[in-house]
Design goal:
The protein has about 180 residues and is α+β, with helices and mostly antiparallel strands. The chain has three helices and 13 strands.
């Protein structure tokens, strides 16, 4: 009788410790522009956008340092960053309304994903905690303007963009509606 009472009390701290160590494992591959998540709720693979030419996304292993359901970037014109999970200074994993750009480098260094996936990831990290690893090298991209030898500017493909408003191409419908820097 005494063993049946003592044994559960002895095992309870070990069960609590293993639950406390369970965390969502978030792996971002810069080469493939994908995020793989392993959590107690399942395994997921999603396209992301990381740093475009001229910017960088830090590589390494990180723990979340802060979370905000909605953050507005003071550095980049109060851009909305829904479901932000900060992991190194101002770097964060967050939702982006520019979903046409997912799967290719497009950010100033943050890891962008669709708003729905960002909400799911945010909930997982809020419930379980998280570990973030970022590996790989960003792919070379031909989506940026470059000066040619003739002094003119040559623009690359606008793949992944949609047309809104007055016939100009934008990646973010909010930019078309609210004048996101096209003036």
């Amino acid at each position: 009788m005494r063993i049946s009472v003592i044994l559960p009390l002895f095992l309870c701290p070990f069960a609590w410790a293993s639950a406390a160590n369970a965390a969502a494992h978030i792996h971002i591959n810069l080469s493939t522009q994908t995020m793989h998540v392993q959590s107690s709720s399942g395994s997921y693979s999603w396209p992301v956008s990381t740093a475009r030419a001229g910017y960088s996304t830090p590589r390494g292993s990180f723990a979340p340092t802060g979370m905000q359901p909605m953050h507005y970037s003071r550095k980049y014109h109060m851009s909305p960053m829904p479901h932000s999970i900060f992991f190194r200074g101002g770097y964060a994993i967050h939702g982006s309304y520019a979903t046409g750009m997912l799967g290719q480098p497009a950010s100033h260094g943050c890891v962008r994903l669709s708003p729905g996936h960002a909400a799911m990831l945010y909930q997982m990290v809020q419930n379980e905690g998280g570990r973030i690893s970022i590996t790989g090298a960003p792919p070379r991209s031909h989506y940026y303007a470059s000066a040619g030898r003739g002094g003119g500017v040559h623009y690359a493909s606008s793949r992944g963009r949609s047309y809104y408003g007055s016939g100009y191409a934008v990646a973010d419908p909010f930019a078309a509606l609210f004048g996101g820097g096209l003036f």
